[in-house]
Specification:
single chain; mainly alpha
C-alpha cells in the first residue's frame, strides 16, 4: 500500500487511517481524470518552443544578469 503524501492532521482521522491501513480496509484511491489529448499536445508544443524563443529574445547581457541572480539565490539558501 502506498503512503499518502500527507496524513490527516486530526489525530482521530490519522488513527483511523493507520488502523485501516493495518487491517487492509484502506480506501482505494480515486482514479485520475482523463486529460484532453488535444490540450496536452498544444501545451507541449508551446513548451518546446518557449525556452528557445525566450533565449532568442534576450540579449546576452540580460541572460548573464538572469544567470547571476539565479546563482545568488541558490547561494543565499545555503547561508
Amino acid at each position: 500500500m502506498r503512503r499518502p503524501s500527507k496524513l490527516p492532521r486530526d489525530i482521530n482521522q490519522r488513527a483511523k487511517y493507520i488502523l485501516d491501513a493495518f487491517t487492509g480496509d484502506a480506501p482505494t484511491e480515486a482514479p485520475l481524470p482523463e486529460k484532453n489529448q488535444a490540450a496536452v499536445a498544444l501545451g507541449r508544443l508551446g513548451g518546446l518552443k518557449g525556452g528557445k524563443a525566450r533565449k532568442d529574445a534576450l540579449t546576452p547581457e540580460r541572460r548573464k544578469e538572469i544567470a547571476r541572480d539565479a546563482v545568488n539565490a541558490r547561494w543565499a539558501k545555503r547561508q
